[in-house]
């Protein structure tokens, strides 16, 4: 069973997403801050990180920076309700797809599935370990 | 005997008869003369060469060298050309007398000589000698003086020809003395140019001459009677330097005048009349800007160009203006009634005694600046609303995510037939709570947007603060390592305020506080009741603090300590403007390395009053004006 690390400071959002992801067959660890996400990720064993981009303490981008250092191959999906600032651009610089809140749960599950599949393919072809990861990365 | 100091006249008695010499010496007035005796002509010449005598008594008939020969030789000796030589002749015959005068004797006396007549004769000669010496000395003195005078002095005769002139004239004309004498003065000064000459005596004329370089004051004196052929004295005083200095002064005056006239700032010169400033001088910029003619302005009181508020401020301001340099903000009224914002700088002008004779007033039109500033303020407000709107979207999106997700989940469970009452209850409860949160945010946003018309309403400052925080809550929470603490006094009386603007003030201060704490820290928002019944809002941070040097300028527009591109420097000036528009005051305390605290005190709200009472006195306004200029 694939493991997802979920970080969001909003309790209700956490509850919702944990419930839906578990219903979809993932094992989910839910934390309330970027710092907690880093601590959890250090223990290892996650197949995907799902991060809110705006959190107290370490924000989304800072969290991504740390996570990329300690576990460079784990795919990351970002979630943000804030479309005004350059979060999406910042996140994509780290090869992270950022999704806008509110998002249809089915769409979210689809994005997660796609990310996991891409990651699996990358792992199977070690010659190009970092060339892909984005769902647009395989084009051609 | 100390002969050099001897004032007595030296008489040289020359006679071959010793007895005669004795008699002559005894005949002279005692005490007035010193006597030297010579037995013949040779001895006399030797003595005279040694010590030139004042008078010589000379016997005509002597052996070896007689009196005539001796007299002739004496006259050839330097210094003895003029001295009296009294020839004593033996017999009264025409031939002897003629001979005596021929060889240069001054007078003659016939033997036998009576002592009394000898004495009288000698005395007369001495007196004549003294008079002549005096005249000669006077002449020398006069000539020296004449030549020493820097003015050109030329004496002319009846025909206007130069009879005499001094050294200055010789030098200035660049001709030798003989070339000047006998020349018509008119020719020397004007050449062939015809002139209406001569100038009226005693009426000096400042003029230039074609044949002399420079400016001269030409004075003419007519002498009362023909004096040695001299009729007129012309005095030419060189006034070139004076003329140049005057010219320079006039040029600088003209230049200053033009500067005053043509300066692009409005100038007035004011005099005090019974404690009222009256316009004494006005420049073009003032007339053009206000739309008046010069004669409409001169003599009018300054107050008549002021709006009511400025007139009020003038009462105290004028006294200050007469004491020192003052800078204040005022409003001028144009002839068409339009108001002009100006910065007024006044400077007292003192005479040599230090008494104030007038006050110079310089007005700088800042209407455009103010308009520009409010435009920038307005655009800044829009930017803030934009930021806020983006923030609000996020605030709404999280609860909306919960609502859509939870309801979707319920539908799915219902379709699958796996929906339990517990799940239904929990989810619905969550959906309800988040829906209400959206509603609350929408309400806050509505009130925020609604009051953007700049209207003041009595509001609980705490509610305004809480709404602003609600709308920005998520953004604030995302600030790294920054804790926001509120300490709001529960029972605040209403404050007359613009919700929108106060929220803006708060958000701005919070943003500043955040920027002051790059390593994190705590921001405290406090409200409390003031002694006067007004309300205070305090925002404190634990940031880097503001340097002492920056404190004075912190509220100035465009002043910023942030890096280029990081801030417009407008934030605090806008905040100050907003607080003052509320009748409030803003100040701060800051310690480097400890933190900064902003204090805002708002006046108490009195029902039915819609205009806040200004909290500042005119002195404070003046300070503010000066800061704006700095």
Helix-strand blueprint:
The complex is a heterodimer of chains A (140) and B (630).
Chain A: E1 3-7, H1 11-23, E2 27-31, H2 34-43, E3 48-52, H3 60-70, E4 76-80, H4 87-93, E5 97-100, H5 105-124
Parallel strand pairs in A: 1-2, 1-3, 3-4, 4-5
Helix pairs in contact in A: 2-3
Chain B: E1 9-14, H1 18-27, E2 33-38, H2 41-50, E3 55-59, H3 67-76, E4 85-89, H4 94-102, E5 107-110, H5 115-148, E6 152-156, E7 162-165, H6 167-173, H7 177-180, H8 185-190, E8 205-209, E9 212-227, E10 230-238, H9 240-262, E11 266-273, E12 276-282, H10 284-290, H11 294-297, H12 308-323, E13 326-333, E14 339-350, E15 356-365, H13 367-416, H14 421-450, E16 457-459, H15 461-477, E17 482-488, E18 495-497, H16 499-515, E19 521-529, E20 535-541, H17 548-551, H18 571-581, E21 585-591, E22 595-602, H19 618-629
Parallel strand pairs in B: 1-2, 1-3, 3-4, 4-5, 17-19
Antiparallel strand pairs in B: 6-7, 6-10, 8-9, 9-10, 11-12, 11-15, 13-14, 14-15, 16-18, 19-20, 20-22, 21-22
Helix pairs in contact in B: 1-5, 2-3, 13-14, 13-15, 14-15, 15-16, 16-18
Explain what you see:
The complex is a heterodimer of chains A (140) and B (630). With 140 residues, chain A is α/β, with parallel strands linked by helices. Chain A has one domain (3-124): Rossmann fold. Helix content of chain A is 44%, strand content 17%. The longest helix of chain A has 20 residues, at 105-124. Chain A is globular. In chain B, 45% of the residues lie in helices and 24% in strands. The A-B interface holds A 9-10, 12-13, 15-17, 19-20, 23, 54-59, 62, 80-85, 100-106 and B 387, 389-391, 393-406, 408-409, 430, 433-434, 474-475, 477-481.
């Amino acid at each position: 069973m694939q493991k997802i690390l979920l970080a969001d400071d909003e309790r209700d959002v956490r509850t919702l997403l944990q419930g839906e992801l578990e219903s979809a067959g993932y094992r989910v660890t839910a934390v309330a801050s970027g710092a907690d996400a880093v601590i959890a990720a250090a223990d290892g064993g996650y197949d995907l990180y799902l991060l809110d981009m705006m959190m107290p303490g370490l924000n989304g981008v800072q969290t991504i920076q740390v996570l990329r250092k300690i576990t460079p191959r784990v795919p990351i999906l970002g979630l943000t309700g804030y479309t005004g600032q350059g979060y999406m651009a910042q996140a994509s610089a780290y090869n992270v797809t950022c999704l806008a809140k509110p998002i249809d749960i089915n769409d979210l599950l689809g994005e997660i599935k796609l990310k996991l599949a891409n990651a699996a393919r990358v792992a199977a072809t070690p010659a190009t370990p970092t060339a892909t990861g984005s769902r647009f990365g395989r084009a051609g | 005997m100390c002969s050099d100091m001897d004032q007595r006249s030296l008489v040289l008695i020359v006679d071959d008869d010793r007895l005669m010499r004795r008699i002559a010496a005894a005949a002279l007035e005692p005490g007035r003369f010193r006597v030297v005796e010579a037995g013949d002509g040779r001895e006399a010449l030797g003595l005279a060469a040694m010590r030139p005598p004042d008078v010589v008594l000379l016997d005509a008939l002597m052996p070896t060298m007689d009196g005539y020969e001796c007299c002739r030789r004496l006259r050839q000796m330097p210094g003895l050309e003029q001295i009296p030589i009294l020839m004593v002749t033996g017999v009264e015959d025409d031939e002897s007398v003629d001979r005596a005068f021929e060889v240069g004797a001054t007078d003659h006396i016939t033997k036998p000589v009576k002592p009394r007549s000898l004495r009288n004769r000698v005395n007369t000669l001495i007196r004549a000698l003294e008079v002549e010496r005096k005249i000669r000395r006077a002449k020398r003195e006069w000539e020296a003086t004449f030549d020493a005078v820097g003015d050109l002095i030329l004496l002319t005769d009846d025909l206007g020809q130069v009879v005499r002139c001094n050294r200055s004239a010789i030098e200035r004309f660049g001709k030798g003395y003989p070339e000047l004498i006998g020349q018509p003065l008119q020719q020397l000064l004007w050449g062939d140019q015809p002139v209406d000459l001569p100038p009226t005596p005693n009426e000096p004329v400042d003029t230039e001459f074609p044949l002399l370089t420079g400016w001269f004051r030409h004075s003419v004196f007519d002498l009362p009677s023909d004096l040695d052929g001299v009729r007129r004295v012309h005095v030419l005083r060189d006034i070139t330097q004076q003329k140049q200095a005057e010219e320079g002064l006039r040029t600088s005056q003209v230049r200053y005048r033009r500067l005053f006239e043509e300066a692009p700032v409005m100038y007035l010169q004011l005099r005090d009349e019974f404690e009222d400033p009256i316009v004494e001088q006005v420049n073009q910029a003032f007339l053009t800007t206000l739309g008046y003619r010069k004669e409409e302005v001169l003599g009018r009181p300054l107050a008549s160009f002021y709006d009511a508020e400025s007139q009020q401020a003038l009462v105290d301001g004028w006294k200050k203006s007469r004491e020192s340099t003052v800078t204040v903000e005022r409003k001028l009224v144009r002839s068409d009634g339009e108001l002009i914002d100006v910065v007024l700088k006044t400077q007292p002008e003192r005479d040599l005694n230090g008494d104030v004779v007038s006050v110079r007033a310089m007005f700088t039109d800042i209407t455009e600046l103010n308009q520009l500033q409010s435009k920038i303020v307005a655009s800044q407000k829009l930017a803030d609303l934009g930021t806020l709107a983006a923030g609000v979207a996020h605030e709404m999106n999280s609860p909306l995510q919960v609502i859509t997700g939870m309801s979707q989940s319920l539908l799915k469970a219902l379709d699958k037939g796996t929906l339990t009452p517990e799940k239904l209850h929990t989810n619905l409860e969550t959906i309800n709570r988040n829906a209400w949160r959206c509603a609350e945010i929408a309400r806050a946003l509505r009130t925020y947007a609604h009051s953007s018309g700049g209207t003041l309403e009595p509001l609980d400052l705490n509610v305004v603060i809480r709404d602003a925080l609600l709308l920005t809550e998520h953004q604030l929470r995302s600030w790294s390592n920054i804790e926001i603490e509120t300490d709001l006094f529960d029972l605040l009386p209403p404050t007359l305020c613009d919700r929108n603007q106060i929220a803006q003030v708060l958000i701005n201060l919070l943003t500043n506080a955040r920027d002051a704490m790059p390593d994190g820290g705590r921001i405290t928002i406090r409200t409390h009741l003031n002694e006067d019944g007004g309300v205070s809002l305090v925002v404190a941070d634990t940031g880097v603090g503001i340097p002492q040097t920056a404190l004075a300028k912190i509220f100035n527009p465009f002043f910023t300590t942030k890096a280029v591109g990081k801030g417009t420097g407008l934030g605090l000036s806008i905040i100050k403007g907003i607080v003052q528009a509320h009748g409030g005051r803003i100040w701060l305390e800051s310690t480097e390395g400890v933190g900064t605290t902003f204090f805002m005190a708002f006046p108490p709200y009195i029902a039915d009053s819609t205009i806040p009472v200004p909290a500042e006195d005119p002195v404070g306004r003046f300070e503010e004006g000066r800061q704006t200029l700095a």
